[in-house]
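U., I forgot to send this yesterday:
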Amino acid sequence: MKIKKMSVLVPMLLMFACFAPAREHTATAAVVKPVLVIASLEHSFGNVKPGMPLHYTFEVKNTGESTLEIQNVQPSCGCTTSKYDKSIAPGKTGNISLAIEKTEGYKGEVTKTATVTTNDPDHQTFILTLRANFAE
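Result:
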């Protein structure tokens, strides 16, 4: 009877021992992710003259343990253009630049936005904002 119990218990213990480390490794792998850090989501140029081109670069830091992918930067209108670093390694800093080249005819307070999409699970999408007050 003892031999039968042992012949059942030993294989079960071996199976548990083999699968236990795999579960622990899976839990650890799930924690590794990119972490986006940005100082500000908005920039104000203050008072500017119509016709003055506007350029601003937002710095994006990846404090996570895997590569941060900036998948898309979509300006809200055709007058705003974007350039951005598509991949930011762990511990490194990248850029998202927005520009409004032609501002002739702009008057008063103007706000332009761009929607950013990333692979950071906590910041999958966010909006960057540029503001300027056009006065002659």
